[in-house]
Design a protein that fits this description.
This protein has three helices and no strands. By secondary structure, the chain is mainly α. The chain has one domain. The longest helix has 29 residues. The protein is elongated. It starts with a helix and ends with a helix.
Length: 55
């Protein structure tokens, strides 16, 4: 799953160039939502890791 994200990041220039200017704001909003979703995943994983760590 993470590998797909990383390989996609390597293609940013091509992706950005393919998005028509009139769709740039929509694409930016979708990217921002994906970033929030990844942040939520990161926070959940950290919570789980902390819960597993002996005190």
């Amino acid at each position: 799953m993470l590998d797909l994200q990383v390989s996609g990041l390597r293609q940013w220039e091509r992706i950005v160039a393919a998005i028509p200017p009139y769709r740039a704001e929509t694409a930016a909003a979708a990217a921002a939502q994906c970033a929030r979703d990844w942040q939520d995943l990161s926070e959940e994983l950290r919570r789980r890791a902390s819960a597993q760590t002996p005190a």
